[in-house]
Amino acid sequence: MVALARNPDPALRHAADEWIAADPHHAVAFARAERAWEAGGLIDPAAEGGAAAADAVTPAGGFTRRRAIASGAIAASMALVAGWAGLRQRGERYETGVGEVRTVRLADGSTLHLNTDSAVTVALEPARRRLKLLRGEAYFEVAHDATRPFDVEAQGTTFRALGTAFDVRMDAGAVELTVTKGVVGVRAASGMHRVPAGGGAVVQARSVGVAALDPGSISQRMAWRDGMIEFDGDTIDHAIAEFNRYRARPIIAGDPRVARLQIGGRFRFDESQQFLDGLAQTLP
Q: What is the mean pLDDT of residues 154-171?
């Protein structure tokens, strides 16, 4: 610390200042290391000359008390920062392109599954785990940690995991939640809501609709994790919209009468042509 305080190299001082300012925990680590140095009389200007002289007369390869304290302080700081690093994952961004599905293992042991054309930012902190769904859809398998809440924000709504696994999907003007395990707390403009496993919610600007889901509905919502799309009495218009999430060139229904027809079936992401062929064979 003395070397840093007295070092004439502005680049080194600037780099250190930036590191300290980048995170409050860095400042804490620096302050603790400083206190360790102070305990050994290493930051006292009056003691600096004597300490330097003591180092000067130490035989080659010797280890003075001053150096021992300095080494201990640096080691303690490094251990402290390393410990925070194990808890922390700040500013990470994960995303997928159109037609891509991705799985990411987070530093806290949780698993993030990203659907097509999706993006999530992750900030794992000592007191809280904060994620933000920027677009698309993601499924979260949350590692239990009672000391650090796991929050996912999407379009101004916060979903808090209570030892759980759940899916969040963003659509135009709404966010859809599906809970497959545990309980999820929903904090929206309309208030707080709890959604248990087997339940879902649709969050809009001024309302939250919570409902129990039958197994078929949950299977349909989660089919993407197996690379599939499921339909059960859905309109062709809805089916086309689902396929278009995985296509660079969209399918278009040119006739609203066709778009309103209902269909069922299970298809892979990349089977849109088979889907169209099936329509031609089974519908007028």
A: 93
The secondary structure of 98-129, three-state, reads CCCCEEEECCCCCEEEECCCCEEEEEECCCCE
pLDDT above 60: residue 63 = no
Share of the chain above pLDDT 70, in %: 68
* Residue 218 · residue 176 · CB < 8 Å: no
Q: Provide the β-strand partners of residue 103.
A: 113
Which parts of the chain fold into alpha helices (H)?
2-6, 10-21, 24-39, 45-56, 65-87, 215-222, 236-244, 256-259, 272-282
Task: Determine how many CB atoms are found less than 10 A away from the CB of residue 270.
Answer: 12
220-251 pLDDT, tens digit each: 999 999 999 999 999 999 999 999 999 999 99
pLDDT at 202: 95
Tell me the backbone φ, ψ of residue 166, rounded to 5 degrees.
-155, 160
Angle at alpha carbon of residue 74, lines to 73 and 75, rounded to 5°:
90
Q: How many CB atoms lie within 10 A of CB 219?
A: 15
User: Residue holding tokens 């963003």?
Assistant: 170
Bridge partners of residue 262, in order along the sequence: 235
Across 190-212, average pLDDT: 92
